[in-house]
Amino acid sequence: MIFLISAILNTLFLASDWRFHGTPHFFVAVPARLVVVFASLLCFALVRRATRFSQAQAVLIGWEVTTALAVALLVSSRSDLALFVVLMLPSIFYLVAPTAFRWSMVLGVGCSALMLAGYLGRGPMPTTLPGLILVLVMLNFALGLVVVHGNRLRRLEWAATQAERQAKDELVASQAMIERIFMAVPIPLIVTSRDEGRFLRGNDAAKRYFGEEVTQAQVQDVLLDGGNRRMIARLLHEQEQIKSHEAKVRDGSGAVRDVLITATTLPIGEAPAVVAGIVDITDRKAAEARTRLQATHDALTGLPNRLLFGERLQRELARMARKGGAVGLLLIDLDDFKSVNDTLGHDAGDALLIKAAARLAAAIGPEDFVARLGGDEFIVLTAERLTTVQALAKGERLIEVLRQPCEHAGQTIATRASLGIAFAPEHDRDAVELMKDADLALYRAKANGRNMAIVYEPSMRAAMARRVAVCQGLAGALKEERILPYYQPQVALDTGRIAGFEALARWRHAERGIIPAAAFQEGFQDAEIANGISDAIIAAAVSDLRRWLDAGLDVGHVHVNLAASVFRDPALPERLLAQLAAAGVPADRFGVEVTETVLLTRNADEAERTLKTLRAAGLRVALDDFGTGYASLTHLKRFPVDALKIDRGFVSHVAEGQGDAAIVRALIRLAADLRLDVIAEGVETAEQEAFLREHGCRFAQGYRYAKPAPASLVPRLLQLPDLLPKNGAMHGDSAAA
Length: 737
Description:
The chain is an alpha/beta fold.
C-alpha cells in the first residue's frame, strides 16, 4: 500500500516540479521524481510476489534507499517544501515503513543524513544549519523512541494476538478432539435433558446400540423399569451423579439388555443436562449365570450341589429363627453303590445316579429341596413340621421310589437306599450340627441292616463317640501289634477230645488288660479296622499253628472269623493261601468262619468266589451264628460250607423246651441231611450238653469246656484226656487258668 501511495503522490508532485522549468534544478527534479514513481511501482509488483517477510522487507529496504537518494536530489532546491520533506521523509521511514527495528533505525538515520546532505549540497551554508542539524537529531531521537515504544507495543500486540490465536486454535483443536473422542468412545454415550428426559446427543456407539434416530427418543422409551427410572432421577437430583447403576434397557432392535449406567449432571445452556455412559453386561451376566449354575449344580444329575444346599439350609434356618417353623433333613445314601461301579462299570453307576436324582426330584413336595451332596449321597430339605411318624413315612416313600429297578444297557440294576432324618429346632439349630445328626441317623440305618429310614436320637452321638474312640484305640493297637488271638476249643461230645479251635480276637489294652471282641464290636463296622484285625489274627494263628505242629501237637484245625468287609478284596484267597504255604501249614488244618450277613450283601458274589477257592485248596468253611441272619436254604446250596454253627442264643434256652429247642433240633437234622458238621456255641450247662448229644449234635464249644485261652495255654489244653466236666463241674475256669 505504501508503494502505491508513494507512486500516486510523486506523480501529483511531478506537475509541481514544472515550476523549476528553465532552471538547472528542473533536470534534477523531474528525473528524481520519475525514479521514485517507477521504483514505487516496481516494488509494488515485487512485494506481491514475496512469500516470506524477509523477501518483502528486502523490497521495502530497496525502495527506501532509492526513494531517499532521489528525494535527496529533490531537496537540493532548498525550497520551502524541500525543508518540509527533509523532516517528513525520515518520519515516514520511521513510522510507516514496516521493517525490522534495526532496519528502521538504520534507514531512518541514513535518510536524515541524505536529506541533510542533499539540502546542503549546493549553495552557501544556511545560517539555520545548527538549528536544522539539532532539529534532525532531536527528530531522530524522538522518532527512535517512538519506534522503540511502538515496536514494544507491536510485540505485545503480536504476542497477545498470537496467544489469542493459539488459544482459539487449541480450543478448536480441543473441541474437535473431544468431539472425536465422544464419537469414537466404544460404549454408548448419551446426553439427555435432565428434566424432560429427552435425548439430545448420542455418539456413534449409541447410534449403533439404540438406532440412528437416538436423538428423537425419550428416556422412558429405552429405560424399561419405571421404578428404576425414578430412582435414577432421584439420585441425579440429590447427588448429581450415579455410578454403575444396573438397569434393563431396550436396544435399537427391541431386545431387552442388561446394562450398567454411569451418569453425571452438567449445565448445558440454561437447562441442566445428563451425560450417561452405558456398558452392556448382558453377556457377562449370562456368563455369571452359567458359572453360578456350574458352581451350584451337579454336572451329572443337574441337581443342586452341596454348595447351593448349604446356602439354602442357612437361609431356611435363618427364616426359622425369625419366624418360627421347622426344618427337616432327609439324608439318603444308596446301599452298596460301589458294587454297581465295580461289577457293571461306572457308566451303569452314573445311570443309576441320574435315575435316582430324577425319581427324588419327582417324589418331593413343591416346597421341598433336593440336592446331591456327592458320590451316591442325596439330601432332601423340607420346611414342613413333621412328627417322627410322618418323617419316617416320608422317608419310606422316598426309599420305595428308589427301590424301583433301573434299566441300563439291557441290564436291570436293583437298588436300595438308607435314610437318616434330623429336625431343627428339635435336634439342633446349627447347620453343621444338624447335618451331623442326619449323618448319624443314616449311619444307624446302615448299621441296622440298611434299606430303612431312621430318625436321629441324641444317644447316637454317644454311640458315635464310642465308635470313634474304639476305632482310634484299635488303630493304635494294630500299629503296636496288640491285637492277638485267643483260642477256644471245639469239643467232640462223644469223646470230649478237642477237634479244633476257634481263634477269637482279643485286644491287649495297656490299662484294661485283655478285652474281648464283644467290647470293641464297633470297630468291625469300620472296613479298614476290620480288615486290619482279620489280617492280624490270621497272621498270628498261622504262626501259632506252625509252632504247635512243630511241637508235635495235634490241634485238629483252627478256624478264624472273617469280617464281611474282607471279601471286598479279590486277592484275599491268593494272599491267605500264600501265607499258609509260606508257613508250611497244611490247608486242611486251617478254616474260616463267616456269618450269614456275608451271604446277604452285594459282596456275595465275591464271597462265593473266595470261599470256593479256599475250600478247593482244602480249607474248611463254617457258617457262624446260623439262624440269626435270615439266610435262605438256597445259600447253603450256593456256598461251599463244611459246618453249621448254632448261635448261642438258641443253645442257651434248649433245656426249657420252648421254640428254641425245636429250632435247634431242626438245624441239627438239616445239617445231617446235608452231611454237614454241627457245632453248638455257648454251651454252659450239663442240660444243654445232654440235649445236644441226645439229638445228634457232634461238636460243641463254650465255657462248660474252656474259656478262650492265649496261645501259650493251648498245649496244656491238648494234654488233658478230655474236656468233658466231671460231676457237673465246668472245665472253663481251671482249663484257662
